[in-house]
Specification:
Its EC number is 3.1.3.11. The protein is built from 9 helices and 17 strands. By secondary structure, it is an alpha+beta fold. Bound molecules: 2,6-di-O-phosphono-beta-D-fructofuranose.
């Protein structure tokens, strides 16, 4: 299987094999009596079982999405896809016996798992995101996993945690092929479903987001509904040359998971600002913004509301909405500086940035964003230094 990550025996690595090798690594650490190892390992077997169950939900919903594409317009559609997706996720999580409380985009209230099926993890998820414009939009799923805070019976506080406390997060995308990207807090790994094997195969090992990009992603159809400051910010951002030396260009799929996936692989920025229709922003903190912020930060990017780090926000209700500015570190930093305005931003930031652009132009012959061969597959890296 060309392009897939291979082990030493030249075999492609499946999701389960990858999770098990993580498991073994933690056992070795524990054997070495690392002080953090026991804490890190604590519950890791259960977490792996939980993630394996999530992978089953993703395979199953991915297959329902493909069937829907076949039956669409033929009059043979049965249950609405969002109901199928939600029930599939809940069933898989319950039968894993590793979860204790669940929050779904599709349920008003959290589900407390019955005591005989309970495990240690609180799981938040959007079982079918990007669903409002089928069949033109790429749909997917987003999830985050927290360790139960309380001992004993699960309580709402178990899910009302800031995203930085997640022990795992990820997303799936039901595009031309089904992909599953996840992080257990030490890098991001991407898997692609091989339909012949019905197995997720490691295809993107330890992926890093480029330090800057030239693609920006925002629904500019709302510009008349934005606050004037946001309109001004976007127009300034668009005219700022990207640090990779290219003119900025717009891409907007309208499905956050697909827009963030492209941003992770190619660099750039995805933004969803508050406007008259959504005064706090549209995207949900707990099961959309936080898990994707976790992934982007783990890949070396940045995720913010424009004013504060998304992963530091503690939800006040399970369906809280926020503004999202997420992507390449440099691009998010630039939007934050423009958002804060001259009175509160770093006054030297834009000046330092323009120096960096000049330096970059001087050494134009050296490609500033390049593909670098490491021990594994090809990954995208940036040579640009961080602006101090
Ligand atoms: P959808 O309503 O299709 O599920 O939060 C949901 C979301 O899609 C995001 O995935 C997407 O980025 C956004 O809404 C699109 O909203 P607009 O149509 O307002 O641009």
């Amino acid at each position: 299987m060309k392009g897939f990550h291979k082990d030493t025996n030249n075999h492609a690595t499946t999701l389960v094999q990858h999770l098990l090798s993580t498991h073994r690594r933690l056992h070795v650490l524990e054997g070495a009596e690392s002080s953090n190892a026991s804490a890190e390992k604590d519950g890791v077997d259960d977490l792996i079982m939980l993630l394996a169950s999530i992978a089953v939900a993703v395979k199953s919903v991915g297959s329902a999405v493909r069937r829907r594409d076949i039956t669409h317009g033929s009059g043979t559609e049965s249950e609405p896809l969002e109901r199928v997706a939600n029930e599939t996720w809940i069933d898989c999580l319950l039968y894993s016996q590793r979860s204790c409380i669940l929050v779904s985009e599709d349920l008003e209230n959290p589900v407390v798992v019955e005591s005989n099926m309970q495990g240690k993890f609180a799981v938040v998820f959007d079982p079918l995101t990007g669903r409002s414009n089928p069949p033109c939009q790429e749909m997917g799923a987003i999830f985050g996993v927290f360790r139960q805070m309380s001992g004993g019976s699960p309580v709402i506080e178990d899910v009302m945690q800031p995203g930085r406390q997640m022990v795992a997060a990820g997303y799936a995308l039901y595009g031309a092929c089904t992909v599953l990207f996840l992080s257990l807090g030490s890098g991001v790994h991407g898997f692609t479903l091989d339909p012949a094997l019905n197995e997720f195969i490691l295809t993107h090992e330890n992926i890093r987001i480029p330090y800057c990009g030239h693609i920006y992603s925002v629904n500019e159809g709302y510009s008349s509904l934005w606050q004037p400051e946001i309109r001004e910010l976007i127009s300034r951002f668009k005219t700022e040359v990207s640090l990779n030396g290219k003119e900025r260009t717009l891409r907007y799929i309208g499905s956050m998971v697909a827009d963030v996936h492209r941003t992770l692989l190619n660099g750039g920025i995805f933004m969803y600002f508050a406007h008259q229709q959504w005064p706090n922003g549209k995207l949900k903190l707990l099961y959309e913004a936080s898990p994707l912020a976790f992934i982007i930060e783990q890949a070396g990017g940045k995720a913010s509301t424009g004013l504060e780090r998304i992963l530091d926000i503690t939800p006040t209700s399970v369906h809280d909405r926020i503004q999202v500015v997420i992507g390449s570190y440099e691009d998010v930093e630039l939007v934050e500086q423009l958002y804060k305005g001259p009175s509160t931003s770093d006054p030297m930031y834009l000046l330092r940035r323009s120096h960096s652009i000049e330096e970059m132009k001087d050494s134009k012959e050296e490609s500033n964003v390049f593909h670098k061969e490491e021990d594994g597959p090809t990954i995208l890296c940036s040579t640009l230094p961080r602006i101090a």
